[in-house]
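cron nightly-structures :: item 1 of 1
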Amino acid sequence: MPELSLLIDKLEREHSLSETEYRALIEGRNETLAGDLRERAVQVRKAVYGNTVFVRGLIEISSWCKNNCYYCGIRAGNPKAERYRLTPEEILLCCREGWALGFRTFVLQGGEDPWFTDGVLEPLLRQIKAEFPGCAITLSLGERSRESYQRLYDAGADRYLLRHETADKSHYESLHPAAMSWDRRMECLRELKQIGYQVGCGFMVGSPGQTARELAKDLKFIEEFHPAMCGIGPFIPHKDTPFGDRPGGSVELSCYLLSILRLIQPNLLLPATTALGTLDPLGREKGIQSGANVVMPNLSPVSVRKKYMLYDNKICTGEESAQCRGCLSARMASIGYEIVTDRGDPKTI
């Protein structure tokens, strides 16, 4: 195995490593390597996107979910979860507030809630597009049929986020009940790309049972699938789930992987996630300083933010909120970056 610094040289030059080489980079992580990766990732990011940070207005539309993922606080089997569902009119009100604040991308995210049929979503998407010309709509509503994905795309959805959670099938099966299929998750991602969406995927860092081997498979999957966006963040346990007593992931490893992802795909849209900010007050800044270029402040009604609790202690009021865009702008400016009013599409390079 070549010296690890030579692997970083190769990754920056070729945007590709073998799974074995990715694993070596992960297992050999130290402060010196992390610093080198971080500097190179920032250089690459600035070459493509400059100092700009794209913002997306996140609207968490429902905490109802039919699934029972072992790590998630809104899993169907958690009787303590507080459930809510926004109406189409409430979602539009969130978009109106976001548009006035300067947001040009709206992210409609929720559990897999059967109430949100195509018949409910299609007119909503068309109205958002009509009322806010030029905006981008991102959906993050889990697994649906190919026909549904097509209908929502035709109604105006531009992007779809579907975290694959892990590129290793056996690891996926250890995180989900038997009713959920890794093969179907991967098929959904392929279908979304074939339809024409800008597709986002992503994985947890430090999930139960995860090793450098699984993370290396994730990195190789991202390299080969070539998504428009990849959302990663540390696993944070939720007390009312089967994994409530498991140790969480780390901000440091998450940022290290962000830097690797930036070198794998220089034009990748990489969020500095809420999970980073939950574990570390400066977590999102650290993500941006590791190569990320997207933040997603919360546009959901204040009354429901604490109910969309995927993991314990999720930040849901204050500077992560869309209403405090000035606070977020100041925080980004303090590390030399600028929030821009833009759809934030991936650059072609």
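cron nightly-structures :: done
The first strand starts at residue 52 and ends at 55.
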